[in-house]
Design brief:
By secondary structure, the chain is α+β, with helices and mostly antiparallel strands. Helix content is 26%, strand content 10%.
Length: 305
């Protein structure tokens, strides 16, 4: 590999005639740096280590990579971690270029600034629908499925972002008779206090909260132009997807949505469960004749309208 890289660089027109020792030394230094980065990528992809390849290191790879996008760095790193079968050890320039080609179409130009956080928009490879790049409230795109900074907030179904969504918000066992309670606490429920197990005694069918969670609805928690997806929309890009069929936590993270194992908050106690092991997302669809009362409190991902 090194000999081939030296030959490529010698054919690039970077040498005088005759060449100088300094030019040859610069070639050796550049090729060695490129090979070192490729070795690191191969190791990260095929061992338990996590990719931390920097923009400068990608820039050192020879021949120079085409269409590298600095803003996609986290997505490139995640791809290396999630696709060991795509890289040799050491990796080749062609393998890294193939990664860039695969990742770039899923990251669309454009950002959304919402509640002091900047989100990017990602495009589904199957439905062509546009999604935010991480859970609502997450401070970054997931570097791994257990990256706690990308877990985001946890919402009671159909409820506004009134403060209850904080993973550490206080709790109250006092039931409410509206879908817009003027409190910032997580409302715990039990079958003895609320026959349906719902956080509100209003809206027994869930129809009001379906409307409330639409774009511009009474409890709209999304940036303008986005909404919580319907079950059909969420399913099409997760458990029924073609490119990455989400069947477990590993495939949830390896999908273009990078879904983390954020766990859930139990509706009866407010206690966090399954953090670091299970992934959950809300849809705004109701469950049969009742809203999604029995499902515990989970994260939200937004779909562009």
């Amino acid at each position: 590999m090194l000999i081939y890289a030296y030959q490529l660089l010698m054919q690039s027109g970077s040498f005088a005639s005759p060449a100088t020792q300094a030019e040859v030394q610069a070639m050796v230094t550049a090729v060695n740096a490129s090979n070192s980065v490729l070795e690191d990528i191969g190791t990260d992809a095929n061992t338990a280590s996590t990719s931390d390849t920097t923009i400068a290191e990608f820039g050192a790879i020879l021949p120079a990579l085409m269409s590298f996008v600095d803003a996609n760095l986290a997505a490139y790193q995640a791809y290396i971690n999630d696709n060991p079968g795509s890289f040799s050890s050491p990796a080749t320039q062609a393998e890294v270029q193939a990664m860039i080609t695969a990742v770039n179409p899923s990251v669309v130009a454009g950002t959304v600034i919402f509640k002091n956080l900047t989100y990017k928009i990602v495009k589904s490879p199957d439905t062509n629908k546009m999604w935010l790049d991480r859970n609502l409230g997450a401070t970054k795109v997931c570097a791994s499925s257990t990256d706690s900074a990308c877990y985001g907030n946890l919402y009671q179904w159909g409820r506004n972002d009134d403060g209850h969504e904080s993973r550490t918000s206080g709790t109250t066992a006092t039931s409410v008779t509206t879908i817009t309670p003027a409190i910032n606490k997580f409302i715990t429920t039990s079958t003895s206090s609320t026959s349906s197990g719902d956080w509100s005694t209003a809206d027994s069918t869930g129809s009001s909260r379906i409307s409330a969670w639409t774009d511009g609805g009474a409890n709209d928690i999304c940036p303008t132009g986005f909404s919580v997806p319907t079950e059909e929309e969420l399913t099409a890009d997760t458990t029924s997807a073609t490119t990455t069929d989400v069947i477990n936590s590993a495939t949830a993270f390896s999908s273009f949505l990078k879904i983390p194992v954020a766990g859930y908050r139990d509706r009866m106690s407010g206690t966090l469960y399954s953090v670091g092991s299970d992934a959950y997302l809300w849809s705004r669809s109701a469950n049969g004749s009742r809203g999604r009362f029995w499902a515990s409190v989970v994260a939200v991902r937004f779909l562009q309208r």
